[in-house]
Model the fold of this input.
Amino acid sequence: MSTPASKVLDRVLVLEMVRVTEAAAIAASALVGRGDEKAADHAAVEAMRKAFDDLEIDGTVVIGEGERDEAPMLYIGEKVGGAVGAGPKIDIALDPLEGTTITAKAGPNALAVLACAEAGNLLNAPDVYMDKLAVGPGYPDGIIDLAKSPSENVRAVAAAKGVEPGEIIVCVLDRPRHAELIAELRSLGCGVVLIGDGDVAGVIAVTNPETTIDLYMGQGGAPEGVLAAAALRCVGGQFNGRLVFRNEDERQRARKWGIEDLNKIYTRDELAKGDCIFAATGVTDGSLLKGVKRLKGHVMTTDSVVMRASSGTVRWVRGEHRK
Done:
């Protein structure tokens, strides 16, 4: 089913979103391998916010660096853009540096990421954990179900693909909390690709046949789940997400942001509705994008991807930047 084009987003040039993620990635890249997660994140945040000021939009951050008292910039509810009160109203989900630890350690798959849609079309996901399950395009609707066990989901995808369960490759965040999940997958004979961080890239990997990854499973940040769902809405694939609360404070935070059913399993289109734009720029080299390269003569190169749901267009953008 096609996604109608948004007249609001028609006024927001797709490539302008790439300029925003490029700015964040370039700023963060100066701190790759320096061992300072907070400094790298701060640099990306400052650069992304400044880049938004150049856009003629009336933007609202619905997923950002945290709530206002926790984040001085790009907090949830912050207004961004150069036409606040006058430009097209859009909601923005962002992660100026997805993979702060990766960046500090010069590991792979650090990204600057954002998604935008018309106001009201992105879930205001609180900063809690989310159980996630994703599969790439080309499968029957409902092939995955977070209410079922990992084994049941693997068998369903394997049957649809025409292979044995042991031929399925699953991407999982390498965390102690996933020990039972990993053991269950390996008991089926599945290949398990463990990643240290950066689960937006991990989810998007299911859409690229070259990665050979069939499924993404596991628990990660809820805001990153919405970003990943927006990307899948643009290029296809299915996503299930369920919020995970560790205490009453997190439940109250969710209610504050309008989450009523705390046990709900969200589909891709419930997390990101309508026409969406997703953009990402590599900070460090990864499976999706190359990182920022600093060359002689104060020249830097960037590698980005931008997608739009209404057209299904995916653009790969290589930029050269001179100071």
Summary: Residues 14-29 form the longest helix (16 residues).
